[in-house]
Write a structure and sequence with these properties.
- The protein contains six helices and eleven strands.
- It is of the alpha/beta class.
- It has a single domain, classed as Rossmann fold (3-Layer(aba) Sandwich).
- The strands form two sheets. Strands 7-6-5-8-9-11-10 form a seven-stranded mixed beta sheet, with helices on both faces. It has a four-stranded antiparallel beta sheet with strand order 1-2-4-3.
- Helix 3 links the parallel strand 6 and strand 7.
- Helix 4 runs parallel beside helix 6.
- The two termini are 26 Å apart.
- The protein binds S-adenosylmethionine.
- S-adenosylmethionine binds next to helix 2 and strand 6.
- S-adenosylmethionine (SAM) binds next to helix 2 and strand 6.
């Protein structure tokens, strides 16, 4: 497994797993300044655990779409450079603002990821987009935000049930990937089981 600088496999509270250095956020165990990154609570954590080639090396500028209350993006801001965190729901945003008080590189943005024009004046070109919006139109969100990536990577988690609960996940994944190819070259895909059911991890680059 290739891990970015700032992410290590460490034994914390008697269990070995991914960890980053920073203040705890969601009740995760800590030791010597390191905190466990739980892949069951994080699609990006699951992508790293399953050995996907994310291309992350640490220190990148990141645009994170679907930040919720900051579980995953807090780990990202622990090892990345400037991290812009887009979330459109006010309630999780309140928690995210608290998470950001301890993290000078984390910039929460209360915006709709389907309308990037609203934050284009704030977000610089980024090295990586991490997307976990769990909503209908996941390919469209990635395509709308492609403008922020010159080169670099899209790290996307597709949740099949957010697109259509009635269809087979494999068919949903095929359709989302086909649409994604309008603007991206898909480099790798992998199931995120056993950490997340009916989710596909995707590594892509702008085409
Ligand atoms: N990525 C988070 C983590 O690992 O900590 C969990 C994200 S949760 C599965 C999906 C989040 O995406 C929700 O908080 C939801 O409000 C947000 N979301 C859905 N559609 C969105 C949109 N169009 N713009 C911004 N946020 C959106």
């Amino acid at each position: 497994m290739t891990l970015p600088d700032g992410v290590e496999r460490r034994s914390i509270a008697g269990e070995t797993g991914l960890a980053t250095r920073g203040q705890p956020v969601y009740g995760e165990p800590t030791e010597d300044g390191w905190r466990r990154w739980n892949p069951n609570r994080s699609k990006l954590g699951a992508m790293l655990e399953t050995g996907m080639q994310t291309g992350l090396s640490g220190g990148e500028t990141v645009l994170y779409l679907g930040a919720a209350s900051g579980t995953t993006v807090s780990h990202v801001a622990d090892f990345a450079g400037p991290t812009y965190a887009v979330e459109f729901a006010p309630r999780p945003m309140r928690d995210l603002l608290t998470v950001a008080t301890d993290r000078s590189r984390l910039f929460p943005l209360l915006n709709d990821a389907r309308e990037p024009t609203a934050y284009a004046h704030v977000v610089e070109p980024v090295d990586v987009i991490v997307q976990d919006v769990a909503t209908r139109g996941q390919a469209r969100v990635a395509l709308e935000n492609r403008r922020f990536l010159d080169d670099g990577r899209l790290l996307l988690a597709i949740k099949a049930r957010s697109e259509d609960v009635t269809r087979q996940p494999e068919n949903v994944f095929d359709d989302v990937l086909e649409e994604l190819r309008e603007g991206y070259e898909v480099l790798e895909t992998a199931s995120l089981e056993p950490y997340h059911d009916d989710h596909l991890g995707v590594v892509a680059r702008p085409d």
